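Example with several molecule types.
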Amino acid sequence: MISVESRRAFFLFLALFAGLLLVWQLSTASAPERSPYGIPQGNAEYQMLMGHAPGTTQTREGFPGPARFVASALQALHAPFHNNGPSDRGIGWQVGASLLRVAIGYGLAVVVAVPLGFLIGLRPVIRRAVDPFIQILRPISPLAWMPLALYTIRNAEGCGIFVIFICSLWPIVLNTAFGVGSVRREWLNVARTLEVGWARRVLFVLLPAAAPTIITGMRIGLGIAWLAIVAAEMLVGSSGIGYFVWNQWNNLSLSNVLLAVLLIGFTGMVLDGALAALQRSVTYAE
Amino acid sequence: MPNDNALAPTTMAHDTSRPLVEVSMLEKRYGNSGPPVFSDVSFTIQPGEFVCLIGHSGCGKSSILNILAGLEQPSGGTVIMDGCEINGPGLERGVVFQGHVLLPWLSAVQNVAFAVRSRFPTLSRTEIKEKAEYYLHLVGLRNALDKKPAELSGGMRQRVGIARAFCTQPRMLLMDEPFGALDALTRGLIQEELLQICARTQQTVFMITHDVDEAILLADRVLLMSNGPDARLAESIDNPLPRTRTRESMHHETGFYDLRNHLVDFLVRRSALVSKGEN
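Resulting structure tokens for the full complex:
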């Protein structure tokens, strides 16, 4: 049963979308090229002077309109996984390369950050000792690490992964520590009166109690990771969606740049949606 | 310790056997300056006895229970159970907490099973589930086994809490105002169920309440605490009513009103006098 409100929202969405397309179409509609000196368009000598064959109508290769974008996007998506060497790979291949980097760097971050967050959340001494480090390291833009990473790791692939690791680490550490630290005392007292060992306490009391907060941190971390990977790949990549964007800019193929930008947004949405589903599955009502 | 002559309760025959729990000279203070919350608290609990502790808020009732549970450390004095000093929580003491303290991500049966597994780690998965269901049936919960605590009513949640405490078969059950948040009807129902289970299992219970009628219905002995700060254990009164008493009929028993008036009198008037040193 679709409510009146969601139907209205859908129509409003359609209207906004149509308006956006219209603005796009109007602002990119190719105006006939005019000479700044008032020479008429059909002047054969002027056209030859500008390098065009006389008699042909000339449109500028400017920002693509919706129709041209769709045509070129369909072409790019027709064979998304083709691979003709480093400068001619399909866009699906590039997104896959970025996702693989994120999976490795982010996976490492989760593996390190969750136990570290538990330690910080459970031991106030460790929290105090570690806090200054975290407060200084956390606001550093992940790309600022790039020169140090390049010098130390000496491997473009490793640098990309390191950048992802370092930027998704902090939100997960902080959220895990907060979630574990604010588990209700009564629940821990229940575990104490039942003489529950530390492993069971961590796995069956602390982890499920803090899981919604931990996953919030993981969502923030993944969001930042997906932002950072594009910039990192522009700098070091020989593959990946960030590299693709920069390569297509060098090719002056704005259609492909636009396609890549939309694909980055779409992939980010899917990633966040996956974690949101995970979060719903561990959320509990008190 | 029992320093009251207004009511001469029939002396009970508890002093023949060795007490299960001996509390002596218990004291609790927060910070180094100022008076203690309570001090000089000594009492014993016999095996199979149901003891209620009554007092106004702030007299440290919950602290005493938490010390018995091993969740809090006393500032002075000792608690000895079965010849061993208590200095930490343990499975031989089951706790029913104030309000419900069920793990909200587990269903009712999983909450009880969590305790069963802690007490009997060698049992198989199905045996644990059967045991958990048995104890939930014992407290009258049959249809809501797989519901999460948030989907249960207050009374059902407290039933699950009681089942969780019983399923570990503790030597002593500690209950911290277990029915305080329930409506009168539900409270009465669960009180009678608790009474039946305790009678059947010979369970030793130490319970905190501030409901006089609840104490008279459930307790073999009522301990009265004076007002804090520096609260004392003022009186210990044996319940003269027969153990077969029920909620419907106990106000017809001889001695009910004497006992009730005595307890209410204490809470209204004498509890404050004791702490002023006019006792």
